[in-house]
């Protein structure tokens, strides 16, 4: 669409233009209209030709891209016509624009394009939404409405539909997707939104023929033009150079065209069907793109297309003439395969090594690495592509260009059109192999994968469509072949078993293909289509496919082999195991689960038989390939046996759901023996890894062991393995199986009666844990019932109980930890009904709690008591723990439960749990418990434990007893009670035990045992007795030599038998090399034989063990002797929980129950008084244990004492440090010393530990944290809470905040009055004021300096910056950044506070004046004064410059003066807020305890005294003296001073007090307060007079004049009010007409009560501040009171209220007045200043008189109940600064400002927006809610921390980053805690995880 278009329109004729010229001269619209009219005629040939010619020219095929190469063709000449020479024809963009304009005009047929669009939209019949989105879009998924698990809805459709109570979640799209609303194949109609509830097609009118007529002509050319463009732009990338750059260039040029197509698709159904028609019409394609005809340019384009095809290793079928070879075997005769004319006869087995031939000459050998079964049809699948329509070629280029987002979106936008959907799906399938090849070569495989899945998930989720494509296009063949082909490129030889001769190949996990998960798009498509029953059935019926698939699975069998390092540590720990586990789970297990979900009923037996058959074949091939006989190679393990697991899972399914006979699908014994080897090897290796035998292989081997049992993998890995072992065990000879287990675990040599032995293959330090491992494995094998008869709900319950017993869990972590079927379509969907019901049955919900430390708890589930009581199953816990510590944690919790419920006080053993009954098919498993080999092992171990042999543990004993108990629970049938016949003895002469039943073997006595021992062993010394017992197994008849029972030999014998039974060639079995390592037991020379006298049976050993465990002789007494009941109902609760003794008792009871003989024997054993078994040993051991116990007890007591002491200390400082709200309880460590006799305060230094007073030379200081705060400025004067805006209408205006009001006031004063005077008339610090807080600990300032030095040199990374002076208090670790020196002398001026002097008011006033006149002498240079100066510097630098400079002349001393007294004001006001805004609660509050105001005052006062107030301007004089020459003073200044009535009284108070010498006398303080109160009261009256209406003013004025002469006139507010009114009337104050808004302020009538209340409210803030100040300066508690009496209480506390006035007549505030100068003289003087000001600026007078006195406490913004409200409004909101939608939007919870977190777009001078805002809004403290994460982040200065979330889901959990996307609701308590921390400035103390933000937030 190049310059040619410009030429055509420019009117300069190009040589070959046919149509008559004038039309081009007219504008486009006219031409279009003319053409449309021509085409509408019945005979439209002429019109058509004209249009074609026009399009030919407008959409000229010569591109700017190609123009560089284009030689002298006519077309190029034509193109050159427009511009001056080719490429400069208006730039590439202009030409394209022009062409697009033409297209739009032509489509609209002369009308306006917009109107045309609207017209087409009117005919949209589509009932589908089909909105396409790309990655990161927020969409919804509702499991209740979805038929396919991939169903998703756009936010709009979701909110328009009704999903209340459904199981839905919001998610952030990873790969992009499309909205399924309206598609009943994917979701239920009930979930459709209002717009897409099916419209019947009848009410959509028919599309008029002429509306889209032009489109049908124009679009084919347009699309072809696009395709030509793509052909031109593509250059086959060179071998190594990534070609992205070229791609992007072309795509950028094409942007507008593709967008144009995309817009067309959005016009709705009518236009889509035209597009479908164009895209799929084969004739159009043939005509335009065949490259035949004379157009050179078209030819060239076609050649480029063919080159690209070849370059992709694809053939164009027409080339078959050159091929010379036809491939007819599979009946695919037409599909010949090109590209290897040379390789004619060898299509099958060429084993070529060239892996990835980039040059495009695709050899057939490429395919053949390993034998493939159906080799013939693959070739066509892999290598042939023929394009018959635009759609097909468009997709081809889309793939070539690696799926550009715009193209993908266009192709997907068309999907609502049904015909298109089918055509596109077929095209996609046809290109599947090509997609795989491109993906493999791509450098951007991640993005490409996402785009592929974006498309395929839309196509394959639809069952109907998937079925159709499977039937018509061999979808399954294609997918399986493509997967196989893909994996073949990364195969290596397997080293498992036989390294030299192995023929097996496995995938190499180190290859990029596996490491980067490149295969996942293909695998996920495969899983997706297998989820459709109709498709899966096809797969399961197709034997060829199953064979190929098993072939594919076998590539993963034995991958990532680990070899144990025996010498040194591996140099490089490979992390390939991630790839291996992911590959097995995704490529093998998930398809397996998919297939299993369709094998649920009896009718599907055939499928299972097929899978099992081909699985076994594949396994047999595998065993052959690795040359496996019967011994696994030592020191090797692979965790990946997918073939075994397929086999196991299908077996399980067959028995559980399909009623198949297990034996009919089991192989012969020999195969079973082979099958069990590798899974058993894994179990043994797990034990080795936990025993640290693989430690030289690095951490990754532990990682593998953990992943193998981890919740997402366990049911595809360890569970099938254990199940397979259970199946083998149930069918093989039990003796063989048991001996194999002990041999694999390498503990055979340990199982001897001798006290010493040699283990040829295991170091002794590993023996114990390996023995524990072997026994634990047996217990799991015998007691796990997951696949052996449990129902799904029972399994779910068991899993849940196991997880909850380890730890309390949140709902989401439970969902995550319960292994669920990885395939989404399988039974138990997380969050499904059964999950919730089981959860509520086994667990109690603990709502989220708040600890005072502020750590936020989540809502947790904790097991119910009866679960601990009956369902706690240690076996399940052991099976499911990833970390060993979890087992311990479960046991600890169990112990705690038993203690608490009083069931058992000591340390319990794991309880024995009854099992669900076995499924009949697996009954054989129990034979393991009744085989002699196991009984011998149990007997031996019991004996060894009793004799205290080494390397045995309580755990071993526990497992031994567990196995015995399992055997008793599962004994075969009742054994006969009479004595065994004598003949039996001879029959079993060679064995230890007479039979195989545990019940009878338990009572069998064994007298002598012959053992082989090292010569050093103690047993050797003994003389063997003359004759050996008959039931000793020592003398075997056949050999004549004495022989030890050897597990190994037994196992060999059994193995031989089994093999012989199968092979028939007895004794000819070739023993593999590996067996030599088992030397014959006698061959090591230093072993000698000894005969031991044993004379024990299992029962007697148990009874002796009971004695040993209890530490008492004869501790066991058969319970049934006292209480026969026990034998009748044996379920005695007292035996359920307990330690080893309980277990022994329980076992003996069960043994007695099962046989009368056992009962009798137990009784006999107990009657013989048994001496303790080995006397020396036991007693010493007992003594040892007793000593140990005593020692332990003592140690414990000592520890308890220490701990208690420590705890009390800690408690005391924790309370000083942490508490914000408990005034009553803490008296600990007050800074204020209560005794009043103390002359000087004593401080403890927490660094050097010395106590002493603070002195000038060695001052002590308080550890303080200085921080700038704008909390005060956030107070508002309305009690109506401010809400966070969640719609465009709601806005927050900051005009009514305290900070804004004070700002306005100050600037108003500065406009009219003298600057220096203004700066003393108000306080600043409402924003950016400095707040000082302390933890209450003190230290010497020199100690602190050295402490800071040591911190500086400390290299450890701290959370704070030492350069900025930050540190943590050495005692309580609270964050601090400065030290506030303590003024020497007493803390509290107690002595002065006592004496009541009787000086008169006038004397005091005079004294105050003189004291103020004294100039502050600059203190001598002592350490103390230096420190005071430096802390003052710290205070100043704490806040930003803009919060300290208010004067008009920068740097004037008035500024510093103002700043200093304002610091005092800020701290007083904040303390007031912490007390709840009033002083009603009284007492020394917690705020008081941590307050350092006293010390702060000294520092401020010292500095303020350096500024003298010129005596002429001293406000004290104005307050206490009458000025003589008022008029003259006012007239001679250009800018007057601020009138006293405009001054802030609290500020005056601080100025007066801080400019007097310290310590201050109480009487002077009271005097100042009294004088200021008169001023305050006058201000109140003035403000009131302004608020009254004209009539009221007159009325009050008259009333007052009447009372003027009464006795107490000066203390009557009526009199004073009338005086104020009459004085102020002299000016222009009231004349301003009734200013509307002031009159409106208070429409209520002013009754005397109202006035009194108003006056009190006006004065209260001052009284509160003053009382606090008095409390801090002079000590003394604050009285507590009711709210209504606060005024009187505070007034009398301050000494304003003479105490006698508590008489009957009602109290008035005026009673507190004490005029120093008669009121009738001084008030006129004060009013005069105002009236004279009103002469000049009447409009400002009133505003300044009314001061806002009532501020509400500061609050954060109120948040909506549901988080979605916030999310939907803000996550797409544009930022007001950069007008983009931020990637990480955040909103300030203090003021509601919307900011870009981390956004570079809004960065100013290297500060990102959040940091900047935190400085402007909170003076360095910011609280932001991160919209996309629901988390709150706190910024404090240069650090930040994640605070947590105040929104929790229904289960009381946070959802950080909205990963789960469940609805979230506000948690009011958490929000309160947040607000509390903000107001009390404790973020730094409570939150622990701070990090620097480097201004990047």
Account of the 3D structure:
This protein is α+β, with helices and mostly antiparallel strands. It is built from 75 helices and 28 strands. The strands form eleven sheets. Strands 22-21-23-24-25-28 form a six-stranded antiparallel β-sheet. The chain has a three-stranded antiparallel β-sheet with strand order 3-2-4. The chain has a three-stranded antiparallel β-sheet with strand order 17-16-20. Strand 18 and strand 19 form a beta hairpin. It is flat. The N terminus is likely disordered.
Q: Please provide the count of β strands.
A: 28
**Share of helical residues:** 40-55%
Radius of gyration: 46 Å
> Overall 3D geometry?
flat
Mean pLDDT: 78
From the N-terminal CA to the C-terminal CA, the straight-line distance is 46 Å
Q: What portion of the residues fall into strands of 2 or more residues?
A: 5-15%
Strand order of the largest sheet: 22-21-23-24-25-28
Number of alpha- plus pi-helical segments: 75
- Poorly predicted segments: 1-25, 61-91, 317-377, 824-828, 975-990, 1021-1044, 1063-1085, 1172-1183, 1214-1238, 1387-1395, 1484-1488, 1633-1643, ...
The class by helix and strand makeup works out as: alpha+beta
Largest sheet: 6 strands, antiparallel
Topology:
Layout lengths: L2 H8 L11 H4 L2 H13 L4 H14 L5 H4 L6 H9 L8 H18 L4 H9 L10 E2 L4 E5 L10 E2 H6 L7 E5 L4 E2 L34 H21 L10 H22 L3 H12 L1 H8 L6 H16 L8 H4 L51 H9 L6 H11 L4 H9 L4 H13 L1 H10 L3 H16 L2 H11 L1 H14 L2 E3 L11 E3 L4 H4 L4 H11 L2 H9 L1 H12 L7 E2 L12 H21 L8 H21 L10 E2 L4 H16 L11 H22 L8 H11 L8 H14 L2 H11 L19 H20 L8 H15 L4 H7 L15 H10 E4 L13 E4 L1 H7 L2 H7 L3 H18 L30 H15 L7 H16 L12 H6 L10 H4 L4 E9 L32 H17 L23 E10 L1 H13 L14 H4 L11 H15 L1 H12 L7 H44 L24 E2 L6 E2 L7 E10 L28 H15 L2 H4 L10 E12 H13 L13 E2 L6 E2 L1 E4 L8 H5 L6 H13 L9 H16 L14 H22 L11 H4 L3 H12 ...
Antiparallel strand pairs: 1-5, 2-3, 2-4, 6-7, 8-9, 10-11, 12-13, 14-15, 16-17, 16-20, 18-19, 21-22, 21-23, 23-24, 24-25, 25-28, 26-27
Helix pairs in contact: 1-6, 1-7, 3-4, 3-7, 4-10, 7-8, 7-10, 7-11, 10-11, 10-12, 10-17, 11-18, 18-21, 20-21, 20-23, 21-25, 22-26, 23-25, 23-27, 25-28, 27-29, 28-30, 29-30, 30-33, 31-33, 31-35, 34-46, 35-43, 36-38, 36-40, 42-43, 42-47, 43-49, 47-49, 49-50, 56-64, 57-60, 58-60, 58-63, 58-68, ...
């Amino acid at each position: 669409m190049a310059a040619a278009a410009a030429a055509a329109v420019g009117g300069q004729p190009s040589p070959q233009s046919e149509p008559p010229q004038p039309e081009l001269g007219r504008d486009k619209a006219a031409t279009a209209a003319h053409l449309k009219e021509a085409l509408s005629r019945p005979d439209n040939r002429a019109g058509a030709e004209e249009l074609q010619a026009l399009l030919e020219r407008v959409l000229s095929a010569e591109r700017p891209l190609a123009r560089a190469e284009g030689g002298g063709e006519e077309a190029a000449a034509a193109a050159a016509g427009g511009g001056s020479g080719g490429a400069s024809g208006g730039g590439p963009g202009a030409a394209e624009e022009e062409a697009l304009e033409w297209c739009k005009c032509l489509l609209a047929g002369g009308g306006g394009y917009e109107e045309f669009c609207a017209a087409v939209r009117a005919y949209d019949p589509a009932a589908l939404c089909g909105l396409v989105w790309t990655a990161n879009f927020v969409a919804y998924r509702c499991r209740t409405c979805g038929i396919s698990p991939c169903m998703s809805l756009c936010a709009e459709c979701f909110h328009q539909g009704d999903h209340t109570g459904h199981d839905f979640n919001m998610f952030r799209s990873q790969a992009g997707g499309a909205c399924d609303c309206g598609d009943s194949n994917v979701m239920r109609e009930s979930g459709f939104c209002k717009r897409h509830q099916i419209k019947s097609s009848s009410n959509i009118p028919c599309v008029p023929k002429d509306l889209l007529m032009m489109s049908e002509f124009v679009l084919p050319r347009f699309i072809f033009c696009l395709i030509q463009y793509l052909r031109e732009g593509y250059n086959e990338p060179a071998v190594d150079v990534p070609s992205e750059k070229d791609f992007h260039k072309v795509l950028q040029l094409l942007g507008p065209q593709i967008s144009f197509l995309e817009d067309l698709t959005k016009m709705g159904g009518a236009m889509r069907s035209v597009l479908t028609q164009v895209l799929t019409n084969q004739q159009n394609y043939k005509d335009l793109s065949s490259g035949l005809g004379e157009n050179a340019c078209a030819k060239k384009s076609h050649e480029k297309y063919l080159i690209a095809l070849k370059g992709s290793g694809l053939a164009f079928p027409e080339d078959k003439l050159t091929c010379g070879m036809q491939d007819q075997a599979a009946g695919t005769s037409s599909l010949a395969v090109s590209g290897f004319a040379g390789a004619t006869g060898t299509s099958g087995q060429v084993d070529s090594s060239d892996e990835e031939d980039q040059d495009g000459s695709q050899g057939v050998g490429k395919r053949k690495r390993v034998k493939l079964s159906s080799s013939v049809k693959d070739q066509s699948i892999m290598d042939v592509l023929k394009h018959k329509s635009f759609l097909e070629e468009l997709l081809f280029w889309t793939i070539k260009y690696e799926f550009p987002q715009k193209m993908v979106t266009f192709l997907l936008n068309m999907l609502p059109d049904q015909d298109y959907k089918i055509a596109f799906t077929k095209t996609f399938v046809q290109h599947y192999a090509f997609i795989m090849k491109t993906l493999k070569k791509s450098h951007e495989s991640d993005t490409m994968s996402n785009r592929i899945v974006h498309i395929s998930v839309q196509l394959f989720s639809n069952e109907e469509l998937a079925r159709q494509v499977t039937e018509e296009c061999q979808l399954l063949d294609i997918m399986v072949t493509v997967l196989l082909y893909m994996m073949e490129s990364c195969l290596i030889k397997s080293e498992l078993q036989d390294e030299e001769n192995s023929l097996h190949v496995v995938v190499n996990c180190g290859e990029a293909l596996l490491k980067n998960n490149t295969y996942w798009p293909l695998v996920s498509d495969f899983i997706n289509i297998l989820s459709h029953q109709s498709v899966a059935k096809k797969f399961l019926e197709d034997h060829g496919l199953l064979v190929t698939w098993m072939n594919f699975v076998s590539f993963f069998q034995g991958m990532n082999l680990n070899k144990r390092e025996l010498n040194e540590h591996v140099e490089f720990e490979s992390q390939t195991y991630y790839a291996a586990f992911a590959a097995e789970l995704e490529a093998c297990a998930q398809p397996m689960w998919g297939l299993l979900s369709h094998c649920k009923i009896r009718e599907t037996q055939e499928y299972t038989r097929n899978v099992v058959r081909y699985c076994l074949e594949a396994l047999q091939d595998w065993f052959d390939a690795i040359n496996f006989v019967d011994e696994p190679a030592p020191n090797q393990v692979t965790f990946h046996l997918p073939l075994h697991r397929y086999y196991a899972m299908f077996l399980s399914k067959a028995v559980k759901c399909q009623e198949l006979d297990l034996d009919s699908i089991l192989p012969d014994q020999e195969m079973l023996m082979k099958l069990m080897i590798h899974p058993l090897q894994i179990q043994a290796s797990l034990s080795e890894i936990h025993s640290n035998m693989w430690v030289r292989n690095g951490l990754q081997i532990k990682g593998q062991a953990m992943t193998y049992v981890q919740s997402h993998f366990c049911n595809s890995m360890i569970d099938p393995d254990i199940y397979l072992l259970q199946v083998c065990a149930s069918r093989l000879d039990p003796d063989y199986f048991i001996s194999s287990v002990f041999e694999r675990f390498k503990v055979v040599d340990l199982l001897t009666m001798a006290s010493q032995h040699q283990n040829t293959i295991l170091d002794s330090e590993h023996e114990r844990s390996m023995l524990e491992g072997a026994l634990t494995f047996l217990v799991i094998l015998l007691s796990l019932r997951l696949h052996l008869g449990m129902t799904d709900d029972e399994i779910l319950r068991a899993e849940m109980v196991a997880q909850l017993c380890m730890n309390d869990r949140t709902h989401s972590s439970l969902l995550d930890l319960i292994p669920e079927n990885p395939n989404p379509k399988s039974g138990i969907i997380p969050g499904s009904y059964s999950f919730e019901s089981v959860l509520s049955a086994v667990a109690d919900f603990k709502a989220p709690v708040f600890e005072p430390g502020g750590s936020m708890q989540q809502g947790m589930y904790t097991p119910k008591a009866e679960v601990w009581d009956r369902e706690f199953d240690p076996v399940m816990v052991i099976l499911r723990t990833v970390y060993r510590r979890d087992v311990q944690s479960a046991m600890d919790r169990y112990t705690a439960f038993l203690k608490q419920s009083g069931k058992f006080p000591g340390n319990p053993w794991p309880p024995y749990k009854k099992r669900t009954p076995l499924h009949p098919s697996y009954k054989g498993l129990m034979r393991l418990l009744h085989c002699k080999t196991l009984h011998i092992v149990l007997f031996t171990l019991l004996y060894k434990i009793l004799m205290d042999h080494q390397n045995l543990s309580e755990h071993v004993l526990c497992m031994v007893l567990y196995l015995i108990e399992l055997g008793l629970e599962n004994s075969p049938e009742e054994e006969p009670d009479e004595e065994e016949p004598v003949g039996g003895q001879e029959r079993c002469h060679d064995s230890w035990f007479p039979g195989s039943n545990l019940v009878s073997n338990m009572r069998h006595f064994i007298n002598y045992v012959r053992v082989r021992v090292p010569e050093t062993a103690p047993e050797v010394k003994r003389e063997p007795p003359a004759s050996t017992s008959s039931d000793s197994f020592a003398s075997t008849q056949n050999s004549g030599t004495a022989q030890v029972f050897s597990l190994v030999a037994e196992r060999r014998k059994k193995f031989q038998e089994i093999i012989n039974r199968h092979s028939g060639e007895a004794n000819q079995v070739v023993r593999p090399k590996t067996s030599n390592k088992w030397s014959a037991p006698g061959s090591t020379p230093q072993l000698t034989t000894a005969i031991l006298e044993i004379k024990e049976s299992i029962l007697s050993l148990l009874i002796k063990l009971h004695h040993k465990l209890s530490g008492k002789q004869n501790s066991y007494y058969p319970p049934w002797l006292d209480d026969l009941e026990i034998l009748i109902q044996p379920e005695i609760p007292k035996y359920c929980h307990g330690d080893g003794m309980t277990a022994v008792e329980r076992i003996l009871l069960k043994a007695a129950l099962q046989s009368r003989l056992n009962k009798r024997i137990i009784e006999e054993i107990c009657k013989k008084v048994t001496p303790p078994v080995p006397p020396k040993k036991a007693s010493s051991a007992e003594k040892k244990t007793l000593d140990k116990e005593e020692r332990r007890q003592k140690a414990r007591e000592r520890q308890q004492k220490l701990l208690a002491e420590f705890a009390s200390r800690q408690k005391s400082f924790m309370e000083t440090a942490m508490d914000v709200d408990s005034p009553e309880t803490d008296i600990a460590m007050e800074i204020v010393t209560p005794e009043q006799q103390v002359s000087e305060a004593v401080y403890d230094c927490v660094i050097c530990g010395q106590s002493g007073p603070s002195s000038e030379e060695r001052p002590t200081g308080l550890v303080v944290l200085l921080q700038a705060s704008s909390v005060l400025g956030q107070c508002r004067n309305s009690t109506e809470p401010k809400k966070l805006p969640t719609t465009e209408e709601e806005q927050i205006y900051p005009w009514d905040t305290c900070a804004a009001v004070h700002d306005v006031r100050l600037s108003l004063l500065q406009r009219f009055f003298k600057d220096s005077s203004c700066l003393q008339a108000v306080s600043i610090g409402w924003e950016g004021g400095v707040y000082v807080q302390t933890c209450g600990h003190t230290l010497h300032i020199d100690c602190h300096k050295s402490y800071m030095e040591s911190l500086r040199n400390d290299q450890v990374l701290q959370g704070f910056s030492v350069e900025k002076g930050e540190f943590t208090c050495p005692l309580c670790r609270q964050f601090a950044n400065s030290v506030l020196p303590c003024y020497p002398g007493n803390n509290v001026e107690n002595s002065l506070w006592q004496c009541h002097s009787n000086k008169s008011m006038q004397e005091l006033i005079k004294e105050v004046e003189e004291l103020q006149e004294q100039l502050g002498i600059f203190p001598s240079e002592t350490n103390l004064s230096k420190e005071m100066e430096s802390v003052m510097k710290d205070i100043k630098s704490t806040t930003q410059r803009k919060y300290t400079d208010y004067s008009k002349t920068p740097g004037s001393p008035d500024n510093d003066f103002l700043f200093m007294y304002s610091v005092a004001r800020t701290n007083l006001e904040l303390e007031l807020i912490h007390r709840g805004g009033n002083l009603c609660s009284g007492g020394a509050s917690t705020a008081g305890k941590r307050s350092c105001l006293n010390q702060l005052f000294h520092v401020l006062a010292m500095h303020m005294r350096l500024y003298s107030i010129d005596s002429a301007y001293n406000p004290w004089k104005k307050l206490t003296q009458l000025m003589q020459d008022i008029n003259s003073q006012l007239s001679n200044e250009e800018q007057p001073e601020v009138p006293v009535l405009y001054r802030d009284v609290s500020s005056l108070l601080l100025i007066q007090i801080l400019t007097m010498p310290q310590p201050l006398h109480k009487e002077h303080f009271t005097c100042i307060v009294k004088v200021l109160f008169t001023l305050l009261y006058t201000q109140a009256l003035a403000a009131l007079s302004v608020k009254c209406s004209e009539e009221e003013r007159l009325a009050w004025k008259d009333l007052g004049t009447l009372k003027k002469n009464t006795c107490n006139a000066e203390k009557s507010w009526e009199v004073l009010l009338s005086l104020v009114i009459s004085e102020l009337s002299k000016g222009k104050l009231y004349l301003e007409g009734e200013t509307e808004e002031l009159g409106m302020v208070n429409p209520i009538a002013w009754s005397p009560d109202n006035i009194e209340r108003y006056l009190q409210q006006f004065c209260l803030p001052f009284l509160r501040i003053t009382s606090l100040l008095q409390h801090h300066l002079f000590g003394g508690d604050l009285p507590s009171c009711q709210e209504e009496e606060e005024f009187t209480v505070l007034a009398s506390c301050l000494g304003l209220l003479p105490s006698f006035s508590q008489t009957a007549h009602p109290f008035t505030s005026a009673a507190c007045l004490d005029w120093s100068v008669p009121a009738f003289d001084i008030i006129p003087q004060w009013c005069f200043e105002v009236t004279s000001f009103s002469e000049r600026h009447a409009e400002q007078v009133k505003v300044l008189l009314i001061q806002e006195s009532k501020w509400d406490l500061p609050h954060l913004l109120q948040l909506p109940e549901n988080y979605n409200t916030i999310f939907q409004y803000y996550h797409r909101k544009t930022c007001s600064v950069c007008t983009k939608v931020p990637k990480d939007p955040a909103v300030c919870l203090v003021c509601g400002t919307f900011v870009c977190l981390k956004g570079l777009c809004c960065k100013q001078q290297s500060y990102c927006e959040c940091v900047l805002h935190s400085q402007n809004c909170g003076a360095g403290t910011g609280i932001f809610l991160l919209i996309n994460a629901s988390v709150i982040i706190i910024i404090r200065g240069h650090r930040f921390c994640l605070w947590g979330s105040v929104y929790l889901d229904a289960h009381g959990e946070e959802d950080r980053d909205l990963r789960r996307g469940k609805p979230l609701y506000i948690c009011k308590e958490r929000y309160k805690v947040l607000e509390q921390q903000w107001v009390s400035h404790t973020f730094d103390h409570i939150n622990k995880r701070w990090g620097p933000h480097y201004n990047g937030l």
